[in-house]
Specification:
Helix content is about 90%, strand content about 0%. The chain is mostly helical and about 140 residues long.
Length: about 140
């Protein structure tokens, strides 16, 4: 049953005469302004609650599935990265060994060159010392 504004006003006036304006105002505030067909009943609330719980359960299950998929994808990506990293490390290790072997060869060549230079320098110094000793012997003699 829908009450019009005019009917609400008439009810208020009658209540104000019977119990006073303050009490009539309080009672009128307690009466809903909406039609009774728009009021929510406990049954409506329970049905809505059950529906929302069902939707939440579906969303929870969907979210769990998506999280499991993401977890599996992440594990796969990590395994791929691990494999790729191991391959790159092996390549770097090989490259480093090749470079170290090349450096070892260069060091061997440098050792030979330094030995030749030292021998040449020693021989030159010996020749100079012998020439000086001969010069000193001739001048002294």
């Amino acid at each position: 049953m829908t009450i019009s504004e005019e009917e609400r006003r008439q009810l208020y006036d009658e209540l104000a005469e019977a119990i006073g304006t303050d009490s009539a105002g309080v009672l009128m505030e307690l009466l809903p302004r909406s039609p009774s067909s728009e009021l929510v009943t406990r049954t409506d609330m329970q049905a809505t609650t059950l529906m929302l719980r069902g939707e939440m359960a579906e969303l929870r299950a969907e979210l769990k599935g998506e999280m499991a998929d993401l977890r599996a994808e992440l594990r796969g990506d990590m395994a791929d990265l691990r494999t790729e990293l191991r391959g790159e490390m092996a390549d770097l290790r090989t490259e480093l060994r090749v470079d170290m072997a090349g450096l070892a060869e260069q060091m061997a060549v440098l050792r030979v060159d330094v030995a030749k230079w030292l021998w040449t320098a020693w021989a030159s110094n010996l020749a100079v010392m012998l020439a000086l000793a001969l010069l000193v012997w001739r001048l002294a003699g």
